[in-house]
Design the sequence.
């Protein structure tokens, strides 16, 4: 087989076979095929697309390029949730104990990564004592015992994706549905989940800014998942404004606690119930979405989800006392209000820019080496559609630095107050299931 022929074939819009896709992925992972030929193939895929079969074959080849996690010693159907990334997305912290409280095993492997705030692990580490440095055997033991545990990334998962993603980054081929879908799905599948719920975000703070693109990506990922034998569903949700009210690590833990007690923000609660009910159905603990949702609502109302969160924290060394007293979480030195400079209705809160503001405070990592400040971030008092009076606080800035002029300027630029009426964006745009 020759890489030249594969490039030519894809350039001319023909479909690649399983052997050809395997040849290209293995050869690239093993440094036998040079970047320039892979770049040409990626560009051909960008223009010519891939069939649903090709996408599934590409995903499987990437899964097979490295280690895979074996969760077969965990009883039950392991359902994982993946979000394409947003600002102030606190859902994992809530969903893990919530669905576990219904007996759904949650074996969460998570990274730290770059972003506006830390990842799930960083957020959880805001709880004093909580740690994810456990062995695979301990991890599996904890999920069997408590139905929920979190571990840091282990093993050499999908090395092909790592190489391809770096190459796409410098060859203008990131933005391709078959390449994005196979990249995300390969990582989920290698992590060992039996079933997958996807939260595909759309809007200013999302990777997919347009609803139509988000829908295409969701359909592509659902198709791949089901073709490779993992029951997969997707929700398309709004990320034009930040989710919930808190953006920041400890602040989001507090928000998760409130939500698990039934006192969380409306949008965050609704998204958790929507994603959670899909997880419960895929885990075969309920037959319909409606039934699953009712079960979840019940476990919030009767305190079981909240209790499950404490069990989860304690099992990994965390001080479960924070659940009853969130003031035990790291606190910022300065809490500064941002007053509205006019009266009216909030018409826009640009999610991405609010994420950047949180990062300027130190809530996220700019480079892999950056230190995160777990205490800092933003808490919104107003969301799109809320009315506000001049001088009233729009949000509280939690900071350890007192020089906030740049952050304040960024925030004022990213929030719009208008005199007229305002369309509040939908939270859930669509649900995508197997065709
Ligand atoms: N996230 C991924 O993991 N892969 C992509 O290709 C794009 C976003
Ligand atoms: Ca939030």
Sequence:
């Amino acid at each position: 087989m020759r890489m030249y022929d594969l490039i030519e074939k894809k350039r001319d819009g023909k479909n690649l076979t399983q052997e050809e896709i395997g040849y290209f992925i293995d050869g690239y992972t093993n440094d036998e095929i040079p970047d320039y030929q892979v770049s040409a193939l990626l560009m051909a895929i960008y223009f010519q697309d891939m069939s649903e079969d090709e996408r599934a074959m590409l995903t499987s080849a990437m899964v097979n390029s490295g280690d895979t996690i074996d969760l077969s010693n965990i009883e039950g159907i392991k359902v994982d949730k993946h979000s394409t990334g947003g600002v102030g997305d606190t859902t994992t912290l809530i969903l893990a104990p919530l669905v576990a409280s219904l007996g759904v095993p949650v074996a969460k492997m998570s990274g730290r990564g770059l972003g506006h705030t830390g990842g799930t692990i960083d957020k959880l580490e805001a709880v004093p004592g909580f740690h994810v440095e456990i062995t695979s055997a301990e991890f599996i033991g904890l999920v069997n015992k408590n139905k929920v545990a979190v571990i840091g990334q282990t093993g050499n998962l999908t090395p092909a994706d790592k190489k391809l993603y770096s190459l796409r980054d410098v060859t203008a081929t990131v933005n391709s549905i078959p390449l994005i879908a196979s990249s995300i799905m390969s990582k989920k599948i290698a992590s060992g989940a039996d079933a997958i719920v996807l939260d595909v975000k759309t809007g200013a703070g999302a990777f997919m800014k347009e609803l139509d693109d988000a829908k295409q990506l969701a359909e592509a990922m659902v198709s791949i998942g089901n073709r490779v034998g993992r029951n997969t569903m997707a929700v398309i949700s709004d990320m034009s404004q930040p989710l919930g009210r808190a953006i920041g690590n400890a602040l989001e833990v507090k928000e998760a606690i409130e939500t698990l007690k039934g006192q969380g923000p409306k949008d965050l609660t609704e998204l958790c119930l929507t994603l959670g009910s899909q997880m419960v159905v895929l885990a075969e603990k309920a037959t319909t979405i409606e039934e699953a949702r009712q079960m979840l609502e019940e476990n919030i109302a009767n305190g079981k989800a909240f209790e499950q969160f404490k069990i989860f924290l304690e099992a990994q060394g965390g001080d479960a006392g924070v659940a009853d007293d969130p003031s035990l979480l790291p606190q910022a030195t300065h809490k500064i209000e941002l007053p509205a400079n006019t009266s009216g209705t909030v018409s826009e809160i640009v999610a991405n820019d609010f994420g950047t503001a949180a990062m300027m405070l130190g809530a996220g990592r700019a480079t892999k080496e950056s230190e995160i400040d777990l205490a800092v971030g933003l808490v919104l008092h107003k969301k799109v559609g809320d009315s506000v009076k001049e001088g009233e606080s729009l949000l509280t800035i939690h900071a350890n630095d007192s020089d906030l002029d740049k952050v304040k300027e960024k925030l004022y630029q990213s929030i719009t107050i208008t005199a007229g009426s305002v369309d509040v964006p939908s939270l859930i745009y669509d649900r995508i299931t197997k065709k």
